[in-house]
Write a structure and sequence with these properties.
Largest sheet: 6 strands, parallel
Number of helices: 10
Shape: globular
Radius of gyration: 21 Å
Strand content: 15-25%
Structural class: alpha/beta
Oligomer: single chain
Strand order of the largest sheet: 2-1-3-4-5-6
Length: about 325
């Protein structure tokens, strides 16, 4: 591929990429590089972008850098948003946000997204070429071994953003099936009142989350309708253990799950479809085992961290 790429990333960068083909330097608020507490963080990033081949930022700071590039953009540096998610809001604030992003994205070279559906969607609403958007599938570490459904287990659901927990509660309240939900504190109001067969945990440690997921029988991910990517990590974490799952059929999920092959899809906002699918599957162990095995193989071979790293590096060189 040629010489090794030198990449500057912001302190939000969540990935560990160990490759001889790239050198990643993290610009942290407290790192040796850019340790200037009186200077706003995005200003520091802007300064160092003039001395970098590639600068990668999250959307939090990328928007400000895109605006600063109207003053002067580094000629030799490429700016990439490595994890872009945008959700339009029908409010004055939402309209202003859209206008600001339209301006900022003009000066950003590439945008990594987590589903192919987002490429068409973002190119239309931001009036940008589809070539600016690159699909990088998310990944999770390979499971140590196949766990599969746990017949003595329970329904399991988890997530922090864009979850349709009211739909899930409406369905499981009519079923005599134990259910566990793991959610963020932002969902406390939504999950304040739950049926007796449902237990809810908020912001628990990762090891507790993994244990609850591992002991589950069937995983359910209910999502609100929309294009923006949400739910893929929870989806793949379940698949990596061989857990059969039901997920809302939204565009951001279709790159990862094929209905009836490695999981099941139900229409968004449809309680009857979800209830029928749970009723059909919960005691159908042969189907659950078959789907769980295929889910495990999908996560292990298609969405592992090694493949993610290869996709990531190839995308960087294509920039």
């Amino acid at each position: 591929m040629g010489k090794r790429l030198e990449i500057l990333v912001d302190h939000y960068f969540p990935y560990h990429i160990d490759s001889p083909e790239i050198l990643i330097t993290k610009l942290n608020n407290k790192s040796k590089i850019g340790s200037f507490p009186l200077i706003p963080y995005f200003i520091q990033l802007y300064y160092f972008s003039f001395y970098s081949e590639i600068i990668m930022t999250s959307r939090q700071v990328g928007k400000f850098l895109g605006l600063l590039y109207y003053l002067k953009k580094p000629a030799r540096s490429k700016h990439i948003l490595y994890e872009f998610i945008y959700e339009p809001k029908k409010s004055l604030r939402g309209i202003i946000s859209l206008l600001v992003w339209k301006i900022a994205l003009k000066k950003i070279d590439r945008i990594f997204v987590q589903s192919t559906a987002e490429i068409d969607y973002y190119s239309k609403i931001f009036k940008e070429s589809k070539k600016k958007f690159i699909f990088i599938p998310v990944a999770v570490p390979e499971g140590e071994s196949f766990v599969g459904p746990s017949p003595a287990g329970y329904l399991f659901s988890a997530g922090r953003t864009n979850r349709d927990f009211p739909l899930l509660l409406k369905v499981v309240s009519s079923l005599n099936i134990p259910t566990i939900i793991v959610a963020g504190k932002n969902e406390k109001i939504t999950l304040k009142s739950t049926p007796s067969n449902v237990k809810v945990y908020f912001d628990i440690p990762k090891e507790d989350y993994s244990r609850l997921l591992s002991n589950s029988h069937l995983v359910i991910i209910t999502l609100k309708d929309g294009i923006s990517s949400r739910g893929q990590i929870a989806l793949l974490e379940a698949m990596a253990l061989g857990k059969p799952l039901i997920c809302t059929d939204v565009p951001g999920i279709r790159d990862y799950l094929i209905d009836g092959i490695n999981g099941f899809l139900v229409p968004p906002g449809d309680p009857l479809a979800l209830k029928n699918k749970i009723t059909y599957l919960y005691h159908n162990l042969p189907v659950l085992n078959t789907i769980g095995r295929k889910a495990y193989e999908t996560a292990k071979y298609l969405f592992n961290t090694r493949r993610f790293e290869d996709n990531f590096i190839n995308a960087l060189y294509n920039v």
